[in-house]
Amino acid sequence: MIKGSCNCRKISFEVTGPVRSTSYCHCGQCRRQAGNFWAAAVTEDSDIRISGPVTWYASSDFAKRGFCATCGSFLFWKHNAESSISFGLGTLDAGSGLKIEKHIFVADKGDYYDIADDLPQHDT
Fold this sequence. Notes:
The protein is mainly beta. It contains 1 helix and 10 strands, in the order E-E-E-H-E-E-E-E-E-E-E. It has a 7-stranded mixed beta sheet. It has a 3-stranded antiparallel beta sheet with strand order 1-2-5, with no helix packed on it. The chain starts with a strand and ends in a 20-residue tail after the last strand. About 25% of the residues are buried.
């Protein structure tokens, strides 16, 4: 089972089902929220158990971002019309076994770094 939490541990979560789409997101919103590109994975809403008071920020007309109001940790990204949720890989306890599969939104990446691996890159 995959487990994670915010920095102060007021919010924790467990992923009990399949995980997909492990990626580095280089979009402007993720870079601003995380301070750089964001590493995340996706699971179905029914396959994650979240404990604690997540604060949700409507970051666009179609999605919201979940964070801890106490420590500020950026934990989740949720499309309003989908039954899945993204969770930050940096929030996970050791031993997840996950590996990054791809880079997304590379057309928006910061100009201060290079992508130096051979993973697939997608403009959006």
